[in-house]
Amino acid sequence: MLEQALTALKAYDWGQDPKTLSPIDEAIVASHGDAAKRRELEDQLGAVLTTADATYDGKQTACRYLMAIGSAACVPALAALLPDEKISHMGRYALERNRAPEAAAALRDALPKVSGKLKIGMISSLGDRGDDASVTALGELIGEGDAAVASAAALALGAIRTPAAAEALSKASPSAEVQPAVTDASLACAEALLAAGKKIDALKIYKKYAGESQPKHVRLAATRGMLACAGKQE
Amino acid sequence: MPTSPRSSRRDFLKTASAAVAVPYIITSTALGNQNVPPASDRIVMGGIGIGNMGGGDQGAFLGRGDVQYVATCDVRKNVRENSKSRIDKHYNNQDCTAYNDFRELLAREDIDAVHVATPDHWHAIMVIEACRNGKDVYCQKPETLTLREGPLMVDAARRYARVVSGGSQRVLEDYQGVVNKIWSGEIGAVKSINVNVGPLSQACNLPAQNQPDNIDWELWLGPAPWAPYNEARCSGSFSTSGNSWRSYIDYSGGGMTDWGAHHFGGATFAIDVRDLQPAEIVFNNDNGHQHLEFRYPNGISLTHNKPGQGNLQVEGDGQTRAPKPVPVYKGSGGIYGDFIDCVKTRERPFRDIEFAVNSVALSHLGSISYRLQRSLKWDSAAQQFVDDAEANRYLDRARREPWQI
Questions:
Q1: Residue B290, CA distances (Å) to A30, B248, B362 in order
Q2: Residues B192 and B321 occupy one common structural domain
Q3: What is the CATH number of domain A119-234?
Q4: Smallest Cβ distance to A120: which of B1, B205, B401?
Q5: Does A16 contact B205 at a Cβ distance shorter than 8 Å?
Q6: Of A182, B73, B135, B183, which one has the fewest beta carbons inside 10 Å?
Q7: What pLDDT score does B30 carry?
C-alpha cells in the first residue's frame, strides 16, 4: 500500500483523491519513534523531489510530508527547490519547520542567490526560525534598494528579537518607506530586552521612538515601554 | 506601503461641521442629532473580507450611529462593489472607497478601526498589520490558523495599545445556562466540562477550474500554498465537508476551529480559564472512538468528544460556592457594541484577543494530538510542546512569499 501511494505521489495531480495518499499519512504516524523507518520514508519522499517527471502537485505534497518528518538528509533535495519561483515556497514549507542546522544553512545559502519575492520568502523563514546566524545578513538587507525586501529583513530581525538583532536594527539607516517595519521590529526587540532584564538597552530603543515626529500609536508604544522600564504601571 | 489617495475624511468633516457659512453642504447625517453623534465624533471604520460573516459584521457596524463606515475591501470585485453600494446607500453619499488590497485600506490615517472577516489564513497577517498601522480590530473567529500566530497577534495588540476583539458572539450569548450554573456557585468547584465539535480540516486537491475575472486569486491565496482556482476551494459556505475553504487545512482548522472557537470559547468562559492554556493533552482511543482530555494547571479537565457526554456538559464537586459576577459586554449592541465601547474607553473587550487566542489554541492543540495520534505536553509560557520536536513542527507554517508576520 505504501509503495503504491509513493508511486501515486510522483504522478499526483489536481483533482485526484487525496485518500490515495493515506498510506503515507499512516506510515508517518506509525513510524513515530522508529528512526530507521522514518529515514526510509524520508528518503522515499525526497526521491519524489528529484524525480524528473514527478508532477508539481506531487512535489509540493512531498514537501508537506517532509515538513513533518524531514531531517538533515532531505535538505539538499529541498534546497534545490528554493530558487524555483514555482515551488520555492514549498521548499521553505518543509525547511522552515526542520530544526536541523542544515535546514537553516540552506535558507541562508539561498538568500544571496534569489531576489524579489523569493528573497522575502527566505528572509521570512529565517526570521520565523529565530535564526541568530542570519542577523548580520538581514541587517545589511535593510539598506537594500528594494523596499519590500528591506522591510521584510527588518521584520525578520524583530522576529529574532535577540540583542544582536536589536543592535542590527539600531545601526540601520532605512528609507522612509522601510521605517515602519524597522520601528515595529525595534519595539519587538525592546520588549524582549525588557523581559530579559536589560532595561537600559530597552529604554534606549523606546526613547528613540517617543518623539513628537512619530505616529501617535508608536509614541504610545514607546511611552508605555519607558514606563515599564521604570517599573511603573502604564 | 501605498498611502491613501484620499484626504482625511475626519479632517474634512471637522472642517465642514465648523463651516457654518455653508450649511447646505452638511447633511443631517453628518451633523448628527440627539441620538447620533456628529460624524467628527464617530469611530471611522472599514471592513476587510465582506462575505457571509463580513457582510453581517458590516451591517452591525453600519447600523450604529457612533460609527462612520468609510472603506470596504474584498478581493472579489462584485462583492466589494456591492459592499460600497450598500454603504453609500446607507449614508446617501458616494464617500465609501472600495479596495482590492487590504494594505491600502490599512494605510489610511483617517480610519480608527477595522473589522476582518476573511478566511482564517489571512487573520494574523491582517490583524498584526492593522495594529502596526494604529487601528483597533474586530476579527472574526477563529482568530488564528496556527498556534504561533496567537502570541504574535497579542504582542501587536499590546505593543500599540490597540483594542482587538475576537468575533464569537456565541461565547457569551449561547451558553448562559451553563455559565450561570457555574458562576452562581450552584455546582461547586468545576471538575470537568466537555466540548463536542469537529471535524478536523482536510487536505485539498480539488481540480483546476477556469478562473473568473472577478477574483484576485493570488490575493485570495495570499500566504497559503499555491493552488489552482476552484469554486469550492474559496466558497464561504459554512460547510466543513468539502464545499468551502472551511474544509481545508491551508485555510482553516475545519469544524474543530470554526465551531470550536464558539464551543471552546464558551467552555473556557464557563469554567473561568480564559486566561490559561492547558498543560497536557491526553489522547484516548476507545475501540476507534478517539477523544481528548485537556488538563489545565489548576486541575480542571476539559474533555473533547468524550463518549456519553453532551456539549458543555459540566461536572462540579457538589460543594456549593459563593457566586461570582458574570462578565458581560460593555456598551450596547452585543459584541459589536462591546468592541465600539472599548474603542472609545480603551478598555479590553469581552473577547479580548488574548482570550480568543487561548480558546482557539485548544482547537489547534487538539488537532495536532489527533493528527499525531498521541498525547502531548504543552508549555504555555514557552509556547512549545515539551521534549517533542515532531509536534513542534506543527506550531506554524511557512507563508508563501511575500507574506510575513
A1: 16, 21, 16
A2: yes
A3: 1.25.10.10
A4: B401
A5: yes
A6: B183
A7: 65
Nearest residue in chain A measured CA to CA from B2: A177
ipTM of the complex: 0.97
Domain that holds residue B52: 9-168
CATH code for the domain in which residue B145 is found: 3.40.50.720
Q: Is A210's Cβ below 8 Å from some Cβ in B?
A: no
pLDDT digits (tens, 9 = 90+) for A135-181: 999 999 999 889 999 999 999 999 999 999 999 999 999 999 999 99
Give the C-alpha distances (Å, rounded to integers) separating A133 from A36, A127, A173, B234, B341. Answer: 31, 10, 21, 39, 46
Nearest alpha carbon to residue B372 among B171, B155, B200, B248: B200
Q: Does A81 touch chain B (CB under 8 A)?
A: no
How many CB atoms are closer than 10 A to CB B167? 26
Residue A67: closest CA among B327, B191, B394, B301: B394
Residues of chain A with CATH 1.25.10.10: 119-234
A88 touches chain B (CB under 8 A): yes
Based on the domain organization, do B310 and B374 belong to the same domain? yes
Q: Are residues B19 and B132 in the same domain?
A: yes
* Number of domains within chain B: 2
Check residue A193 and give its pLDDT: 98
Contact A121 B398 (CB under 8 A): yes
Domain match, B159 and B67 both: yes
User: pLDDT under 50 in chain A at which residues?
Assistant: none
For residues A197 and A213, the answer to whether their CB atoms sit within 8 Å is no
Same domain, B159 and B176: no
pLDDT for B17 equals 33
Interface mutation vs chain B, best among A64, A89, A214, most B CBs within 10 Å: A89
pLDDT tens-place string over residues B257-267: 999 999 999 99
* B70 and B186 share one domain: no
Task: Please name the helix (run of DSSP H) or strand (run of DSSP E) that holds residue B232, with its range, or none.
Answer: helix B231-234
Q: Which residue of B has its CA nearest to A122?
A: B401
